[in-house]
Specification:
Elements lengths: L20 H13 L15 H8 L7 E6 L2 E6 L2 E6 L2
């Protein structure tokens, strides 16, 4: 597998519901991009961050959400955040 085929995965520690999910995603995305969160493309360019935070805040439902941003596929659930390089 060459470097263009490698997947970058982060997270999987779970989301405790503490703090905004948008912040968790922004930090994980920056880590996957090897950048600081302030250097990464704004998450709000891909998803409504207020809606994202409301969706995951104190929810007892099993929620899964997938979207693309910064050439990455981002998978969110109560199990955590997974980020993969889009092919």
């Amino acid at each position: 597998m060459d470097s263009t085929e490698m997947e970058s995965e982060t997270g999987a520690a779970g989301y405790s519901g503490e703090g905004p999910m948008s912040t968790v995603v922004a930090v994980e995305l920056a880590d996957a991009l090897d950048e600081s969160p302030t250097e990464s493309p704004p998450l709000a360019d891909a998803v409504d961050t207020d809606a994202l935070d409301r969706l995951f805040r104190n929810s007892d439902a099993d929620i899964e959400l997938t979207f693309s941003h910064a050439d990455r596929r981002i998978f969110l659930s109560d199990a955590g955040v997974t980020i993969r390089l889009e092919r």
